[in-house]
Amino acid sequence: MAYLDEARVMLDVEYSTSYKEAQDDDYAKSFMDEKIKHSYQVLGAGNYLIAHEDCFCLLDDDIKDKLKATVLLHDIARFREILVIQNGGKLDHGVHGAMMLSNTENFSSIDVLLPIKHHGHLIEFLYNDDEYIKLSDDKKEWVKKVSYLVRDADKIANFYLLVRAFGEIEKIFFVKDRFENPYNLKPSENVADCFMKFMAVNRGDVKNFADQALMILAWIFDLNYKYSFVYLEKLKIIDKICDNFSKFFEKEDANMYKSLIKKYVQDKIA
Questions:
Q1: Which 3-state string (H, E, C) describes 124-188?
Q2: How many domains does the chain have?
Q3: What is the Cα–Cα distance from 143 to 124, expressed in whole angstroms?
Q4: Which residues contact 110 (CB under 8 A, 6 or more apart)?
Q5: Which of 76, 165, 179, 247 fits a 20 to 30 Å CA distance from 185?
Q6: Can you give the residue range of the structural domain that contains 188?
Q7: 149 shares its domain with 185
Q8: pTM (2 decimals)?
Q9: Same domain for 190 and 256?
Q10: pLDDT tens column, 124-162
């Protein structure tokens, strides 16, 4: 069985099994339904990058197939994660997903496990991972390329979801009870500083809705491949996201953030 075909079967089994365990938990089931769709949306973005980026497009078909499978499996533990959370527990779906796959025959190699383990973390988590540190330079470079592929495809799909279902996403991520002063239109110093340095924002620094919005916009600085930016520009996603989030900032700041992001994207495409 080809890598991608096997990955599809594994993902469907994990989804179906977890869905049954959810029983009458409608929220968990709805979450799982969204995440199975998300997994294939991420695969679609990954396919585009694999077909266009120089470091992937000339590879053998077998290697490309394994890359596609890795992309598809990035959230294989998402279904288990929501069950644990709904029962009051905690689970890192990237770490757990890598652990699950480490027991398989075809997906236990380090270039599958590390990209999946750290796809939802700041990139420094990968660079500081003991398993990554002990790799040869050539192997490190390949693991980075695969990690960037998974991370970029995931963020492209998330950006697309933000445009397609902004109202629903807003209800999930912008909950006033999470923050002491949620409606402050000025981002916190650490968050604004990261953004102005074109860096991803640490979730732990998010203190209000402005921080939350700027953290999501800063995902753009975590993209690595030229065709990730090309893809987003083709769909005019960045304009739409900036406009949706503008209400969380003072008008002058909202215009500045949009201008900076637009220039950043154009520079990456050039």
A1: HHHHCCHHHHCCCHHHHHHHHHHHHHHHHHHHHHHHHHHHHCHHHHHHHHCCHHHCCCCCCCCCC
A2: 2
A3: 14
A4: 131, 135, 139, 143
A5: 165
A6: 175-269
A7: no
A8: 0.93
A9: yes
A10: 999 999 999 999 999 999 999 999 999 999 999 999 988
